[in-house]
Amino acid sequence: MTQKQTDQSIELTRLSHNVGAKIEGLRLGGDLDPDTVDRIRTELALHKVLIIRGQQHLTDEDQYAFASLLGTPTLAHPTVVSHGRDNLILEGAANAWHTDVSFVDRVPKISVLRAVELPGYGGATEWANTVAAYERLPEPLRDLADALWAVHTNDYDYASAKQPEAPDVTDSSGFSYAEFTRVRFETEHPLVHVHPATGERSLLLGQFVSRISGLRDDESRDLIRLFQARILSPDNTVRWHWEEGDVAIWDNLATQHYGVADFGDQRRKNHRVTLAGPVPTSVSGQRSRIITGDASAYSVIDDSGRLANYPGNLAVA
Ligand SMILES: O=C(O)CCC(=O)C(=O)O
Ligand SMILES: [Fe+2]
């Protein structure tokens, strides 16, 4: 019944110069042949975000089986257990710029998100390329970024959740603050890490950052704002308006993303499978450091190295 894919059938169209491509003519599932899986890996390394159209046939199990061809799935979430064990069920929109689960030491390398229920209007997702943002920095800022470290935590400034009269509000993706923070994680990551698959340097920031190590609070905030503004430059982002059957795959070590909460009180539901990633490494070869929390039950560490056929690596190989 299943039909094997060859990568000849893939039709890829870039969505912008700096980030994103859409792919047609592919049928995702756990039975994709290794050449096609390799092609997906390579295109993901190049474009950072892939939108695969026409996947109406996928069940949660198929999505999980497909994702497993690209790596080792994590549990749905380190702390949120009420929204699925394998596929994370996201209702609403994650409307803050972030890299998924950057508060643990082992940052997931890839997320695979499937549109399950779409609103009649609104509800796009945006992505920003954190490699391109780094590469476009003027040299003095690159040098500064290379030397900085930042603390990421799940107990971040959670949408006014810390008001004493509302200790367990839910955020716009439907997670309760109490559950999200039931185990506290705090990790110190380099502001610039070396991407294990491509060797590219990438800025690692986003919603879960609480401070830059060694600086005063005001200095920390100013620098976070400066680098985050570079990442979020419209030239460096892409916005995707979901259609039924769309699956998005993003390189979580080279992007941030944002779910646009502009669909009023309509329902919007996505299912996500996340793949284990490495403990990030700084440009001088130092690895991220745990301050609080053990994420070993959430995810293995996937330290797999360079992509053999990544075009950007040809000069290095
Ligand atoms: O709501 C969205 O579009 C983004 C969801 C998200 O952040 C995620 O699936 O990791
Ligand atoms: Fe996310």
Automatic annotation (TrEMBL):
SUPFAM superfamilies (UniProt xref): Clavaminate synthase-like (SSF51197)
GO cellular component, one term: cytoplasm
Keyword Metal-binding (UniProt): yes
GO-annotated molecular function: 2-oxoglutarate-dependent dioxygenase activity; metal ion binding
Entries under Pfam families matching the protein: TauD
Domain TauD/TfdA-like: 14-274
Designated name of the protein: Putative dioxygenase
Family: Belongs to the TfdA dioxygenase family.
Alphabetized UniProt keyword annotations: Dioxygenase, Iron, Metal-binding, Oxidoreductase
Transmembrane segments: none
Keyword Secreted: no
InterPro entries assigned to the protein according to its UniProt record, in alphabetical order: AtsK-like (IPR051323), TauD-like_sf (IPR042098), TauD/TfdA-like (IPR003819)
Domain of life: Bacteria
Cofactor entry: Fe(2+)
